[in-house]
Specification:
By secondary structure, the chain is mostly helical. Helix content is about 70%, strand content about 0%. The protein is built from 13 helices and two strands, in the order ααααααααααββααα. Helix 2 runs antiparallel to helix 4, helix 4 packs antiparallel against helix 7 and helix 6 runs antiparallel to helix 10. Bound molecules: Phenylacetyl coenzyme A. The site of Phenylacetyl coenzyme A has 28 residues, from helix 2, helix 6 and helix 9.
Amino acid sequence: MTDGLSPEDNFMRKIEAGEKIEPKDWMPEAYRKNLIRQISQHAHSEVIGMQPEGNWITRAPSLRRKAVLLSKVQDEGGHGLYLYSATETLGISREELISALQDGSAKYASIFNYPSQTWADVGAIGWLVDGAAIVNQVSLQRTSYGPYARAMIRICKEESFHQRQGYEIMLVLAQGSPEQHAMAQDALNRFYWPSLMMFGPHDAESAHSARSMQWKIKRETNDDLRQKFVDQTAQQIEVLGLEHPDKDLRWNEARGHYDFGALDWDEFYNVINGNGYANRQRIEHHVQAHEEGAWVRAAMQAYRDKQRVRQQTTTQVAA
Ligand code: FAQ
């Protein structure tokens, strides 16, 4: 108890005062579970998200593009690792998290179940997918759980570079030959709507939003973040000289925002329920990579065991 407050009241006092909740602080079980769900799904998204772009590393059109892409994909792996570590502070093991991803009980962002068919897709992913991720993650820098908020600050810095390199790929293609321009338009057409779906269902359909907003796990709602992304992207499409995929997009002077067309929610639910184009392929690839890495985990364990025995011997000799 603090100042006569019950643990529950003290927890809510901290949340309302904008203080961070740290791993050893008391927290409601539902807060802990909700965080494990969200942060681990975020981590899985970063790791599974390496696949669509990883697919292009050997086919990048120049040495410069290859070096940039390689480093971006590695960054995404690093983001996954920070986020798994943040999740582990909530009392769950890495093994449990990985098995939830592989058995389908934990989700990852729907966008990564779409294929990366052309080099322009690599540009569209950096620009739109990292762009949407940043809009969300900037808001999550103020999330109430300390380790998650701190991971977000570092991750956002790297994501801005990812977004810029993707936009630059699109700019070069959009200003290139008619064939290149057409490739850029095609990638925009295929990735635009799935990027809007990254923000999740409408607020009215969002199972977790109300509690997550109350606990300040989420700082802005799915629809508010999606609107921000629509507004910033409209101008970027204009600069590229590409056609906007949304024919219903209109500036609404009174709202100070763009009104936009309806998303295909059947497609969204189909993809998050495991029936997207690449769902099975993404998980199979993860399982295979995980199995191939078994010897690394075994070697690390053997090293830790050896260190522990050595430390025990040293302590006994000293005593
Ligand atoms: N895809 O009640 P809500 C990146 C699920 S990072 C799949 O609204 P919530 C970087 C949701 O989990 C991208 N599932 O849920 C990168 C829940 O299912 P559950 C990842 C989705 O949590 C770039 C159910 O629907 N970013 O891309 C999606 O309050 C390039 C009900 O939904 C984050 O994860 C979806 N789009 O709000 C990497 C950010 N939307 O768990 C590589 C952190 C919803 O009950 C290359 N997460 N669902 O089975 C969040 O901000 C939130 O979790 C939301 C969803 C906004 C995604």
